[in-house]
Amino acid sequence: QYDNAQRMQDLHFGRRFDPYSLDGDEFLSAIEQLLSDGKLRERVKEIGENIRQRQGIQFAAATAERIAQQH
After folding, report:
1. Distances in Å between the alpha carbon of 34 and those of 16, 19, 42, 49?
2. What distance in Å separates the CA atoms of residue 1 and residue 9, rounded to the nearest whole number?
3. Tens digits of per-residue pLDDT, 9-48?
4. Cα(12)–Cα(41) distance, rounded to whole angstroms?
């Protein structure tokens, strides 16, 4: 999970914590910072809209049906 957390931090989508030294205040502070970040909110909103426009669920279902019919 370390690599995933580091990647999210590098992309400015979240924070990575040291699980051995994390305390409640640090965790709550990070949550407050992320929730109050207007630029992050807009980026995530745009990414969500893009994902929904791709109709991934329909594509996955159609692909699964096609594979099932072939076998």
Report:
1. 12, 19, 12, 20
2. 12
3. 999 999 999 999 999 999 999 999 999 999 999 999 999 9
4. 11
